[in-house]
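Async update (no meeting this week)

Hi team, since we skipped the sync, here's where things stand on the single-chain job. The sequence we agreed to prioritize is pasted below, unchanged from the tracker. I ran it this morning and attached the output directly underneath so nobody has to dig for it. Comments welcome in thread, and please keep replies under the output.
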Amino acid sequence: MQLFRKPGRWAAAAMCGLLAAAALPAGVASAAARSTVPDRYRLQRLVWQPCASGALECATMAVPRDWHHAEAGPSLSIQVSRHRATGPGARRGVLMMAAGGPGASGLRRPAELTRLSPKLAAAYDVVGFDQRGVGASTNVVCSDQDKVDALFTSGDLRDRSPRAVAATFGRARDFVADCERASGGLLPYITTDQAVHDMDLYRSLLGVDRVSYYGPSYATVLGAYYATEFPRRVERVVLDSDVDFTGSWESFLVGQPMSFQRRFEQDFLPWLARNDRAYHQGRTPAEAKASYERLRAALREHPLDLDGTVITGNHLDAAAINALYDASGRFQDFASLMGLLEHPESAPADARKNVADRLRHFMGANFLANFFSVTCGDTPWRRDSRYWVDQSARATSATPLAGAQELTYAAICANWPRSRAPHIEVTGKGLPPVLMLNSTHDPATYYEGALRAHRGLAGSRLITVDGGDHGQFQHGNACADAYVEDYLLSGTLPAEDTTCAGVPLPEPAPRGGSTTR
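Output:
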């Protein structure tokens, strides 16, 4: 799942989107790890210096490779950041935040949060970090970018012929073999459970007994696990756009094709049809969908070489998936992109180059290495290839936009080294009330999963946003922003679950005007 709130570039179907070894009661794993933290980690000092961006301070933190055997193996390096409380008034404490994905960088996120919320910037030291395996921290390595691109752009992912299916499994096995060769033995330790122990060491080195927390998308899993394993270390917790952390990664990701298709058919296509005068894709949702399928078929039969990027139907699906995360920021871009791909000869040179650059890579190789380490390693997956052939065929038929990618994801996780991660049962017991937010048509962290997470987290309050964007706080919704700020600043929660109206869909830009943005 990307970003502060969105996946990296065209990595939309990723995310975000869990649990099945022997269950550990809340606090058991964390207590065992805390009691054996070696002095070289427990007594280290964070040496703060200006980050490269200048808006934050950064430091490097050493952590055990394996928190459950903290004396064994080499240390890993975690890059951390902070924005000191600006005042005036008493400092509230520390607000820790993390990034989504899994695989997105969280190091610079405090700068954006504090810029958009001066009240939180005044009251809290806002701190972030690059999770183990990500960004400026010790990276996990799998395949090079060309191999990653081939996973999602080779052939036609909707092709269900035996030859195409065999090729998908072959590429998945090669990718996993690359991960095992190149990762330096890190794969078993790039998990959410290991990461939350890093977070608690960070809290300790900051010199505070408790932290408040904000996390979107995959970071809702980090927040839920952290609060469960370290219940005495959290004060106020906000989980925004929720992965269903009561189930497994397998069950969660198998649910995503439905929600991406729903967002596409019930939000994007009607919007595109209402704006036919601007984009000329059809006056009804059915006509707009037919236009999309004609373009996809044309790109499948005759891939378009656009400034050195060979664009296929798979690229179009990936671009559509990415657009569904954010109507106000991406619907117009994707509608214009469709027009450019239909008539590239009439587009300005800079617009063609921009589209070619954006579509060149489905997602970054570093992002994908971490994404699969977490989603395949946190919780077990079925390893029956026949099951996945049948399941993904149903997904491709019923929900082709993202369903066509399902076999690639599943084949990788079905071949991943078997997980050693403990199962963390999230119940909410012993925690302060947790504030949760989710939109009804979120394509990545779908509402049905958020409801299950809410029911499984005792005492939580859910703010339902009537809309489909992914990520609610600091996303242009004053109602959602007010609930989050009131809770973090004063501890105020609604007496019961409540709703916010969604952000209106965008007005169309002039035809072609948004592809060069």
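Quick observations from my side:
The radius of gyration is 22 Å.
The first strand starts at residue 23 and ends at 24.
Reply here if anything looks off.
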